C-alpha cells in the first residue's frame, strides 16, 4: 500500500486535479490531500473511489459527497457549511483540473465570496496535454470549452472566435466532432487543426490536417473517446504604412523609441526591424 504525507491538511477548499487517463499522472500532493482531507467531494464519486483504491488511499469514515451539475444548488450549502466549520474539503472533477468545463466553479466562487480559503493541487489537464502533443503554436491560446450543440448557435460562436489571434482549444463530444469540424471549416476556412483523442490513454491519437480534411475524416471514421480540438490562429493582416506611422507616433509620445518599436511590433505582427527602420525615418522627417 502506498504511503502518503501525514501532515494535517489546511482547513480550506482544495481543488484537486486528477488524471485524465493514466492513473499515475496524479501528483504526490494531490494524493496527500485526498488522504488527509476531512471531507471529499467529487463530480463522479465512483471514479474518485477507484482512483483512491489504485493508490492505496482509504476513505475510512470520511464523507464522500457527489457534487455535479444536476445537484450543485442543493449540495453547495452542505459543502460550504463544512468549510465554515473549519474542515478541509477536497473536490475532484471527473477527470482533469477542477473548474475547467466543470461544475466546481460556482462552489469555489461562493467559497471565496464567503471569505473562505481556496487552494489548488494542480495536475493533469486535457487542454495542456492536447497543446503539448498537437504541434500548433502554444505561445497564445484560447480555451473555449464546449461549443453550443445547435448548429446556428455553434456557427455564431465560431464566427466570434474566428478573429482571435490564438490557437483555439475546444472540447467536443465524439458524436458531434465531424459536424463541429465541418462548420469550423465553413466559418473559419482551411486552417490547420488537430483532433486529439483518448489523451494519455492506451489508444491516444492525434489527427493532423486542415479543417476540411479532418471534417471529412471524422465523418467517415467517427472518433471514439474523449476529444479535444485544436484550431490554428487567425492570421493578422499586415497593416499599411500609414497605420504603422499612426501607431508609432502615438507610442513615441508616451515612451521611448525602443519601447514604441517593441509595442507596435507586438501589436501588429510586423517585425521589429521593419518597425524600427520606419521609426528612424519618421525621426529624420521631423
TrEMBL record:
Q: Which residue numbers delimit the Tetrapyrrole methylase domain?
A: 13-215
Please name the HAMAP family in this protein's record.
Answer: 16SrRNA_methyltr_I
Where primarily located?
cytoplasm
Q: Which GO CC terms are listed, alphabetically?
A: cytoplasm
Start and end residues of each RsmI HTH domain: 239-283
Q: Which reaction does it catalyse?
A: cytidine(1402) in 16S rRNA + S-adenosyl-L-methionine = 2'-O-methylcytidine(1402) in 16S rRNA + S-adenosyl-L-homocysteine + H(+)
Q: What does this protein do?
A: Catalyzes the 2'-O-methylation of the ribose of cytidine 1402 (C1402) in 16S rRNA.
**Domain of life, source organism:** Bacteria
Show the taxonomic lineage: Bacteria, Pseudomonadati, Pseudomonadota, Alphaproteobacteria, Rhodobacterales
Task: Determine if Lipid metabolism is one of this entry's keywords.
Answer: no
What protein name applies here? Answer: Ribosomal RNA small subunit methyltransferase I
